[in-house]
Design a protein that fits this description.
5 domains, 7-stranded parallel sheet, Mannosylglycoprotein endo-beta-mannosidase, TIM Barrel, globular, about 1000 residues, Jelly Rolls, Ig-like_GH2, hydrolase activity, hydrolyzing O-glycosyl compounds, alpha+beta, Glyco_hydro_2_AS
Length: about 1000
């Protein structure tokens, strides 16, 4: 007898092109199962995955993301659909008893398929975003091996790629319910197989006579969130030939410390289900039976509080049989509201009654070949949380994201804006002008949409549904979505906050868990109803380099919420070398045009990878050239990181400067590239961050001190719900000689909750003989104990100037003192560094120089205050003792505290220091990538004024058999300090 539950079928698959297999599905799964061999067309398959992913894995075709190799792979428009029609084959075991049932589940296939099991055929109908569940109980071998073959067909309308390229190719893909980016966009090259394949999870699932299908969990709130009710509904299917009596159980637990769980609720209901029938069952809410919680731990977005999650488990026991099925989900108690703000005209979001200023990014998908994994999703979403973002927008030309994506958004507190599969370029405009009526099969679109809602609706991170990108769905689809996703009255603020004293629901009001969703708004398009101009005008963007000060100006963007604003994003030089042959290592030519501006001319490989320049002739002078003409790839990419940092920090600080007075939110286009692209990203496809990542991390702090680059006023941002009081600002200017010509503190400050306030004008640039290039360090701290709430570092030049004086500054030799300690848990390394600029003894008047940070991170993250306090004294033995005390929780210490001091006779700012992690290699070949990725840094691309120290936490996983080394480099740091 098999155990109840799911078994993934994610290994042991084979694949072959259909035209190379001269056997039927019946033959493959009975008398002639395939095998690999010298003359066999069968190869190891990537499942979940795509045809192209399988071909790349087996090196049948080159890596389409490397250099210009994508151009050598035949496109489906030229080969025909049969070329990418593939067989996939595997085997699985089953051990069923007489009353058990077995389902074969495909969570998604692109685009349709025929399935054969032990000679029997089943059909998976069309549609990329729908689940398929096949009851195969009667055709599997109850004890033994089963043969499974799947013939997968590409989308019906894969389209062709016009010579001029464009957004979504010739738009034919829009006739199908599928991803639209696959015909190419201005940020990605075409995907040759259009993502054909079994691209999501395949599993077998064993149940007893009764199966649980798509439970729906909804929480309702009363008494100012002190009283919460959990509503639950589910479909139940009786697959037996007799009436069954069931016990339907729901259990809610919360995790305590030490891997212990507290059972909050355990309730049982008795249900009778007719033979071979399906019923919708809602757990009752009555005076005698309630899932009632008093003062529950709420789920909050990143930066607003903890992401508290409860484990909800529903089981069904059948009389005379026992447990028949079980379903579980992590659930967060939270309420999301949204309306158009009267002050700004932008859409305003509230979570648990608190307004949240949206700072986030646009997301396409993790990987263009749909090589999706929990490990990759974990890094992706943690990166967004590390940047202090609170929302991710899943763009309409990409995916309905997977449950694993949402799991990590739940865990890290990222609200999700999920669009359906409509984009303006493919569904109404473009060159050639596309069809505004969307896919050919509107019923199929709605079937996929409803199934997607059921798949994702229990995730607390899911914040809103949107019909499409820069376009409204066709009228009938839009009407159906509007009706299906209408809000339950409890989420329209119709009822009094106190609700009904007995149940929390008014008599006769339909239970909210009976709705398809009912808890989140539906917006018809990304430019409507409080986004951009709110009326569908093409008023998002711009998408190129800007002057940093322009983000702060009144006329920069006139609407309250910008769903897309983009800019540059070249990665580090190591990524260029790892993803391109040597001819792609050539930096752009800087060509002076007639109007005095510089035009960048990239090499053909950069152009193919959609490079966006750091200049906009006629609008913006080249921002890399401000630092001098780059001499090689390393120089170009390093100077580009300086620009990336300034560009994105200014973007977010400019928006935050007008929090609630002009803006309600902004989403940057875009946070990452699902391939080796060269524009609009904070980390590259190899998972290494650009400096723009850390510019965002600084600017999006919940509590932040910043300089308004347009007015030169110092501002304090408080996005929290608590008033800041008894705080002060320390402002210090440092010149290139390491002296401090300007030092001021501004004390006795207070900042109301949810406010940005202007404090004082920074006078230095107007003083006598200001330096043409200088550094500004701002620190916001508590006056009671000097604990720092926010630290912000700028490099600035006088109006009309540049940063060319920083070029000779690279010759400075600034001494550093580096303390490091390494802790290992399995394959995970956690390295704690403390880097200090020892070029000058700390000045006693610089009260906050020791950087004693207050903790503003979640409990699961590193508390910088614990380390910073150990470094206020220079006694090394004191530091060692406290390090050991702090990190007892780790399973293994690699070594004791190491202290390294580097020589240097100059005094000045240790500028633009950055860590990287590498595998130790004895011989390094040119272009070989030794980096270990991904790595999570508590900060990077940081600068230290004389006497100042900073803690950095570095976390990463090491592949088997690899010895890591951590390297520190900097703009004016001689050599590369390495820690083994």
């Amino acid at each position: 007898m098999a155990g109840i539950g799911k078994t993934k079928l994610d290994s042991g698959w084979l694949a072959a092109r259909s035209t190379e297999v001269n056997l039927t599905g019946t033959q493959l799964t009975t008398t002639n199962p395939p095998s690999k061999g010298p003359r066999s067309p069968w190869i190891d398959a990537e499942v979940p995955g795509t045809v192209l992913g399988t071909l790349v894995k087996n090196k049948v075709v080159p890596d389409p993301f490397y250099g210009l190799e994508n151009e050598t792979i035949i496109d489906i428009a030229d080969s025909g659909r049969e070329y990418y029609t593939f067989w996939f084959f595997t085997t699985f075991q089953s051990e069923l008893s007489g009353s058990q049932h077995l389902d074969l589940n495909f969570r998604a296939v692109n685009y349709s398929a025929e399935v054969y099991i032990n000679g029997h055929e089943k059909v998976l109908p069309k549609g990329m975003f729908r689940r398929h569940s096949l009851d195969v109980t009667d055709i599997v071998h109850p004890e033994g091996q089963n043969l499974l073959a799947v013939l997968v067909h590409p989308p019906d309308h894969p389209g062709s790629i016009p010579l001029q390229g464009g957004q979504g190719g010739d738009h034919e893909i829009g006739k199908d319910v599928a991803t639209q980016y696959v015909e190419g966009w201005d940020w990605i090259a075409p995907i040759r197989d259009r993502n054909t394949g079994i691209w999501d999870e395949v599993s077998i699932y064993v149940t007893g006579p009764v199966k649980i299908i798509d439970p729906h969990l909804v929480s309702t709130f009363f008494d100012n969130y002190k009283r919460v009710y959990l509503h639950a509904a589910t479909e139940l299917v009786n697959r037996s030939a007799w009436v069954v009596d069931c016990s339907l159980n729901i259990q809610v637990t919360t995790e305590l410390e030490g891997n212990m769980c507290l059972v909050e609720h355990l309730q049982t209901q008795h249900v009778s289900i007719p033979a071979e029938s399906r019923v919708q069952y809602t757990f009752p809410q009555s005076a005698n039976w309630q899932l009632f919680f008093y003062k529950p731990n709420l789920w909050w977005p990143n930066g607003m509080g903890k992401q508290s999650l409860y484990n909800v488990v529903i089981t069904v026991d059948v009389k005379g049989y026992g447990e028949s099925d079980s379903w579980g989900h992590l659930f967060g108690f939270r309420k999301i509201e949204s309306h158009i703000d009267s002050a700004t005209g932008g859409r305003l979001f509230k979570v648990n009654g608190e307004p949240i200023f949206i700072r986030g990014g646009n997301w396409i998908l993790s990987d263009g070949l749909l090589r999706l994994s929990k490990k990759r999703y974990s890094a992706d979403i943690k990166f967004h949380a590390d940047m202090n973002f609170n929302m991710i927008r899943c763009w309409g030309g990409g995916l309905a994201e997977r449950p694993e994506f949402y799991y990590y958004c739940d865990l890290y507190g990222l609200l999700v804006w999920q669009e359906f599969w409509i984009t303006g370029d493919v569904d109404g405009r473009g060159d050639p002008v596309s069809n505004p009526d969307g896919p050919l099969d509107h019923d199929l679109f709605m079937l996929c949409a409803r199934d997607t809602v059921k798949l994702l609706r229990n995730h607390p991170s899911l914040a809103l549904w949107v019909g499409g990108n820069e376009q409204i769905p066709p009228e009938d689809i839009n009407t159906a979505l509007t009706n299906d996703l209408k809000l339950h009255p409890l989420f329209q603020n119709v009822l009094n906050e106190n609700g009904d004293s007995a149940t929390g629901l008014s008599q006769g009001l339909k239970d909210p868990s009976q709705y398809l969703d009912g808890t989140r708004i539906y917006i018809q398009g990304s430019l409507w109803e409080g986004f951009a101009d709110g009326k569908g005008g093409f008023t998002d963007g711009p998408y190129e380099i800007q002057y940093p000060e322009d983000f702060f100006k009144d006329d920069y963007y006139k609407y309250g919420f910008n769903p897309e604003v983009g800019s540059v994003g070249i990665p580090v030089a190591a990524t260029i070398r790892a993803t391109m042959p040597p001819e792609g290592w050539q930096i752009p030519l800087f060509k002076k045009v007639s109007n005095g501006y510089i035009e960048e001319v990239p090499n053909p490989i950069w152009e193919y990878h959609k490079y966006i320049p750091y200049s906009k002739p006629g609008k913006v002078h080249d921002q890399i050239q401000l630092y001098g003409t780059p001499k090689d790839l390393d120089d170009f990419c390093l100077k580009a990181q300086l620009v990336n940092y300034i560009q994105y920090k200014a973007l977010l600080e400019g928006w935050t400067s007008r929090m609630w007075t002009k803006y309600t939110g902004v989403l940057i286009w875009k946070t990452q590239n699902p391939w080796t692209g060269l524009r609009g990203q904070f980390y590259d496809h190899l998972l290494d961050q650009t400096a723009g990542f850390y510019g965002c991390r600084s600017a999006a702090e919940p509590i932040h001190v910043q300089l308004n680059l347009a007015t030169y006023f110092i501002e304090i941002v408080n996005t929290t719900s608590e008033e800041l009081s008894n705080v002060a600002i320390e402002a210090s200017v440092w010149d290139l000689e390491g002296t401090c010509p300007y030092y001021k503190t501004f004390e006795k400050l207070s900042v109301p909750p949810k406010k940005t306030i202007s404090i004082v004008e920074m006078k230095y640039p107007k003083s006598k003989n200001p330096e043409p290039v200088y550094f500004l360090l701002l620190k916001l701290y508590y006056t009671s104990d000097n604990r720092i709430l926010s630290r912000n570092f700028y490099w600035l030049h006088l109006s009309g100037g540049d940063y060319k004086l920083l070029e000779p500054y690279r010759m400075k030799k600034i001494p550093l003192k580096i303390m490091s300690k390494i802790f290992i848990k399995g394959s995970t390394y956690e390295v704690h560094m403390h880097v200090q600029n020892t070029s000058k003894k700390p000045d006693s008047k610089a009260l906050t120089l020791t950087n004693n940070f207050t903790s503003t991170q979640s409990d699961s993250d590193f508390d910088v205050s614990s380390v910073e306090s150990t470094c206020e004294k220079t006694d090394d033995s004191h530091g060692i003792g406290l390090f050991q005390k702090i990190f007892r929780r780790f399973s293994k210490e690699a070594d004791g505290l190491k202290v390294t001091e580097t020589n240097g006779s100059d005094v000045g700012v240790a500028f633009f220091l950055h860590f990287s992690v590498h595998a130790s290699v004895t011989l390094h070949k040119e272009g070989e990538d030794s980096r270990i990725l991904p790595v999570h840094y508590s900060d990077n691309y940081f600068s230290l004024v004389p006497g100042e120290g900073l803690p950095i936490k570095i976390t990463f996983e090491v592949p088997p058999g690899v010895t890591p080394r951590v390297t520190l480099q900097g703009w004016n740091y001689p050599g590369a300090h390495t820690i083994h």
